[in-house]
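Box 4.2: Ligand-aware structure prediction
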Amino acid sequence: MKIGILTGGGDCPGLNAVVRGVTKAALKKGWDVVGFRDGYKGVVEGRFMPLDDKAVSGIIIRGGTILGTSNTANPFAYTLEPLGSVKAPKDLSGLAVKNLKNMGVKALVAIGGDGTLNIAYKLHKKGFPVVGVPKTIDNDLSATDVTFGFDSALKVATEAVDNVHTTAESHHRVMIVETMGRYAGWIALRSGIAGGGDIILLPEIPYIAGDIVKAINDRRRRGKHFSIVVVSEGARPEDGEMTVSRVVEGSPDPLRLGGVSYKIASLIEKNIEVECRVVVLGHLQRGGSPTPFDRWLATGFGVSAVDLIEQKRFGRMVALNRYSCQSVTLAEAVGKLRRVTPDCLEIRTALSVGSTFGNAGIVK
Ligand code: F6P
């Protein structure tokens, strides 16, 4: 028995822990394991590395992925030349499956977010045995209680919110911390609660300039001459759009968000006599060693993926459900984002401790 593994989409802490979990569990069963380089790109181009006990030794503590990844390599709409330039999309999924079969790979573990899992689902429908493992710092996949990578990103974001408090207080400033998260505000929301953010701005709750200004003025009236604003990169005004920082051709979701915090700073400074400073965390949130929770979750997901293969339950994704590793079909897992809702526990919690959301319509 030989299985393959790939990591696709944006990297995050915990990917190596899954690679290690899959490899060690498979080796114990006497199987061979190969890791494809750079996500689906390695499957199309036939580039891989054998994974044995030595190859995965010591990697549980490392961020990133030893296999490499790509967020533009989709075998069903392939746009990459060997040197990476963009051309007209071509369906190379037949070549991908042929390569897998020629190598004797009997099943593929695809580790990734919605884009990677969508491709895994298509390969499954094409007849190749696949299982998926959910990854993303955004924690926006609806079919699992949590994805690995999220806790590690939260650690970085919360430390940043903690660290801006003293400088905000010393200078009587408004400090604005911008987190990642794409179209879901979970990183900003949870780190905002954990770090004691005063105003939390999310993609799911469009902000109103006057309500942000009022929240800062209210604090000043209460003698608090500094404020901490935690902004998700997807936050947008009630009458406007998200802030796009670049467009990545060939990516399943070409829009890259970023920079909304500068707009927030300028709207605050226009309305209140106060200085603002901005910290955009960006890819810092995807780096560093995975937290113990992410290492545990990623290892559990890896081992469960091997169990699914042994049971021949293909076309499924491992998922955490009430602290137990279970699985759902890829059909159920893909295309449904889990976003913040106004009545969720986190919003109620934040409101109860006095945080606001730049929109007075969200009341307790
Ligand atoms: O989905 C993970 C994520 O880090 C998002 O939070 C962010 O918007 C995006 O990926 C950044 O992508 P890239 O690494 O291509 O800049």
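In the box above, the bound molecule is 6-O-phosphono-beta-D-fructofuranose. The chain is about 35% helix and 20% strand.
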